[in-house]
Amino acid sequence: MIPVTVHVQFETPEDVMNQIYDMLQANSNGRIKKGSNEVTKTAERGTAQFIILAEDVNPPELLAHIPLICAEKGIPFGYVADQEHLAQAAGLPAGVKAASIAVMEITKGAQEDFNNVVKAIEGLKA
Questions:
Q1: Strands laid side by side in the 77-80 sheet
Q2: pLDDT tens-digit profile of 1-56?
Q3: What is the pTM of this model?
Q4: Taking CA 49 as the corner, what is the angle to CA 4 and CA 91, rounded to the nearest 5 degrees?
Q5: pLDDT, tens only, 66-124
Q6: Which residue range(s) make up the domain with 75?
């Protein structure tokens, strides 16, 4: 487990990270935005359904503002350990990394996974 850094507000157990990856893969037909600039825009506009941040981002300040915006806008967010695994789960080509991803819509097939992830993350914050 990577130590908590400036952009990580709570520790995410591996099983919850796996739920996030599974939800992202189940939502493969849904729209996503990738990269800190695009994710920041969706958070500020309040249009994201869920935001995923990688813990291994360097420098971590790159994503430090996103959890604050999510809290302000009421957007659920979670963390995964690895940028490359996050990109792979989002269906991006091998070798590509994604520091953050905004899920713009939840498809019918991923709705239950989405609900489970949000519930698990709410439990981590409490």
A1: 32-34, 100-103, 50-54, 77-80
A2: 444 565 676 788 899 899 999 988 888 778 899 989 999 999 999 999 999 999 99
A3: 0.89
A4: 75
A5: 999 999 999 999 999 999 999 998 888 888 899 999 999 888 888 999 999 999 988 87
A6: 14-125
- Tell me, what's the pLDDT at 95? 87
End-to-end, the C-alpha distance of the chain in Å comes to 20
- The Cα–Cα gap between 42 and 101 comes to 10
Angle between helices 36-45 and 65-73 in degrees, nearest 10 = 20
Q: Which residues contact 95 (CB under 8 A, 6 or more apart)?
A: 84
The bridge status of strand 50-54 relative to strand 32-34 is unpaired
34 with 93: CB under 8 angstroms? no
Residue 115 belongs to some domain of the structure: yes
Assign residue 82 the CATH number of its domain: 3.30.1330.30
Residue at 50 is within a domain? yes
Q: Does any domain span residue 26?
A: yes
Number of domains in the chain: 1
